[in-house]
Specification:
331 residues; 9-stranded mixed β-sheet; 9 strands; alpha/beta
Length: 331
Amino acid sequence: MKATLTRRALMALTVATLAVPAFAQDTVKLRMSTPASETDQRSVALAEVFAPAVADFATYEPHYNGSLIAQGSELESIASGDLEMSITSAQELAQFFPEFSIFATGYVHQSAEHQVAVFNDPLMDPFKKTVEDELGVKLLSIMYLGKRHVNLRQTKDELTVTTPADLAGVNLRMPGTDAWQFLGKALGANPTPMAFTEIYTALQTGSVDGQDNPLPTVVDAKFYEVTNQIALTAHLVDLNYIAFSKEVWDNLTPEQQATVQKAADDAAENGRQKQLAKEEELVAFLEGEGMAVYEPDLKAFREHVQQQYVGSEFAASWPEGVLEQINALGE
């Protein structure tokens, strides 16, 4: 009899324990997997801002260089309960939900500030809800990666880029996928697919006239040694989202959820401001190296590029009216 009562007591205790949300009292382990390095600005922002902010109830455990989860598999790992956090892109989300391709399209985002306005606008609610309901992933905040610009061998005296018409006949190296090649044509150039490792030599020999990349890449790859100008076309304002397990989120208390949300927003803002400052510093550096750095007619570029997308296969999955809503939040 005593043994029976003991077993019943243990069963009752187990049920009672399970009925209490574990995360409300226990420390939550938040494993974050990213293909980025430890020194990447996104990694630094999360480690220095996000982690201390949630330390009272969560242990932030970052894994860099794809060491925990293979690149491209992070979202499925969150969905299956094998991961709590990742940094994901619109391109990755578009593999599950094609409508997300709109956020990886030329001239949809106009600036870092515009990215934030779009992410926080009600127009994003259906996108976020789809990811939560169908993948179990909550998109907490948006991180700024930088703007891609057109970098050319020609001097500004030889070719000044003001509108897309000025890029006619320019052989512009672009990544090899159909989407990137389409963007190159939409810019007015003759896009040329080429491996990244071949760009420097191709610019040096004149096999291509130019390439497109953010300013940090231009400097890191020393493209400024073999080119003469950068037209600040800002044709792609690149981004990442902080992705968080919806299951973990739902088991946090409202106070903990508010803390996590603020921590993610603060980390994203920290990284954003540092990236913007770095871009400003690099403009000065490149001008010091003799490069002409200037801004073309962005309105003309934006209108021309968006006209190329409308009605194309790349825009087929975009919800009606969303592009107009996004544009209205910009300049």
